[in-house]
Every structure is written in C-alpha cells, then in structure tokens.
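hey can u check if this looks right to u? its 179 residues, i copy pasted from the old doc so theres a chance i mangled smth
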Amino acid sequence: VGENKKPMSFKFFAYSCFSLLLLVGSLACKEITAKQKSNLPVLLPDNGAVETTMIKVPEINKNIQSTISNWNEFKELFDLITNISQENYQTLESSKEVLTDLFSALITKIPEPINSRSVIARIKVIQTLAYKLKAQYVVNNKSVKFEKTRTELVNSFSNMIFQITKTLEKNSQLISKTE
C-alpha cells in the first residue's frame, strides 16, 4: 500500500506543477494580448472605418535645400506627401500615369550630388507605397490597412530626406579629406 502512494503523490505533484505552469502561461499571454490591443487604432463600430490623424511631414533642413532647390520633381513629391498627410487624396484619384511619370522623372532627374543607390532605393520604396496606397484608396480609404500604408509612406519620405542628408554629409567629408 505504501509503495502505491509514492507514485500517486508524484503524479499529483507533477499534475499540480503542470496545471500551475499552464495557468501562469495563460495569464501572461492575456497581458501581452492586452498590451498589443492597446496599440491598435480604434475602429468605428458602424462601418469598420478607422480614425485618421494628420501625419507631420518632415521639414527640409537648410543643408539639403541648395541641392534640391532646382529639382522640381522633388517639389512635386513633397506636395504629394504633404497632401496625403493632410488627407487630401486628389492625386490618388487621378490616373496611375501621374504617379508613374512623377517617379520616373524623380529618378532620371536626380541632382548629381545625391545621385546614389541609397537615395534611389528610398525613392523606389516611396513609389511602391504610393502605388499600394492608390490601390487601397480605390478599395476602402477608411480601412486600417490604408491608414497604415499612409503612415508608412510619410515615414519613408522622412527616411529619404534623412538619406539625402547623410549622402551630402558623406560627400562633404570626402571633399574635405582630399583638400
């Protein structure tokens, strides 16, 4: 009789530990899920639309203004991004050729001091996100996906400005080293 109790108490102990582990694990998952849900945009109950917010477009610093001052395509892109950040989607309502022409000209007429693979790559990212946003605009411009893409587009424009700044800084360092 005594020998049967030991295995039974071990089984009971193992079962208790396993149950406690499952309980603690499920509580931890609920906390993580609650934190993740708090970071999501709030959906409106009637039509599944998401609240939109104005996204701040980065300012162009003085260091790069002289380089891009004659780059008209950049000005057009800046206007496009500004309009989209202010929820003015007139360009998205126009034909796809408008975007195609803009991005084609952006790449072909890029000023020499910033004509680098890294800047061109940033333009390509913006181009891809602009096409994606245009496609989502046609389907549902009040969706969470549309808002996320809109935010990504403005952020990628900010990244392009940062890359232009870094490219110009790198070029100025190379010039000062050779003198």
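Residues 32-50 have pLDDT under 50 and may be disordered.
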